């Protein structure tokens, strides 16, 4: 079953949306149109709440795409291969062929993401100041996008691997120790610790009658913990396999058969052969 779809490409990078993105896009649009904008800006026609909600949601995910695109463009400039960018329920992810080759490359690739979100936030806030006296809906839209992109930028600076801040932390430790595996382990453990803080805080919110906010925090914590653990395992696996050649895993002792042999005869022959081997 297909879980993601290609919707186009930018700078030679495939842009994909995961099936989970449809869920979060629908939820964000509904929350903005039914609660956020009506509670803060009363008196708009109902259709206008939905139009502004849909446009805001689309621009929000376009901002997420811009965040991931800056990661990818910096990676490509440094000689890395970027396979695709996928938008999913928790934002977006750029898929690189392998790990960065040096701490400096890791640092620049990671740090540019939060920086781009803050630049996008500044852009929308500037637009909001220009349109404030002319259009309340446009002011509301750009003000929200400025705030949410600032939050994204700050959130991604949290030093928990595999978030951008965690990758910045890994790059710094990597520079100091010269050991990618060790730096990944430290950044991964830090990420898992931060994930547990998210989960604990989410549980606190749930019991404080902020059920949905708490549930969302628990979900984010679970995702960070899972990604941090998986990221470290991938680095360990690559380190274990880097010197192993395909020929080392191949079995060179095999039996050949005639090309005129039917599949039925081959199965019978194999079955009889196995039966002889297990006879007492």
> How many runs of DSSP E, i.e. beta strands?
4
Helix and strand sequence? EEHHEEHHHHHH
Number of separate structural domains = 2
Classification by helices and strands: alpha+beta
Residues in helices, as a percent range: 55-70%
Shape: globular
Rg computed from alpha carbons, rounded to a whole number of angstroms = 25 Å
Characterize the main sheet. Answer: 4 strands, mixed
Which band does the percent of strand residues land in? 5-15%
Oligomer: single chain
Distance between the termini: 46 Å
Kindly state the mean pLDDT as a whole number?
Answer: 84
How many helical elements? 8
Low-confidence runs: 274-280
Strand order across the largest sheet: 1-2-3-4
Write up what this structure looks like.
- The chain has 280 residues and is an alpha+beta fold.
- It has helices at residues 19-40, 46-77, 103-131, 136-156, 164-177, 180-207, 211-241, 263-277, and strands at 4-10, 13-18, 82-88, 91-96.
- The chain has two domains: 1-157, no CATH class; 159-243.
- A four-stranded mixed β-sheet has the order 1-2-3-4.
- Helix 2 packs antiparallel against helix 3 and helix 2 (46-77) packs parallel to helix 4 (136-156).
- The longest helix has 32 residues, at 46-77.
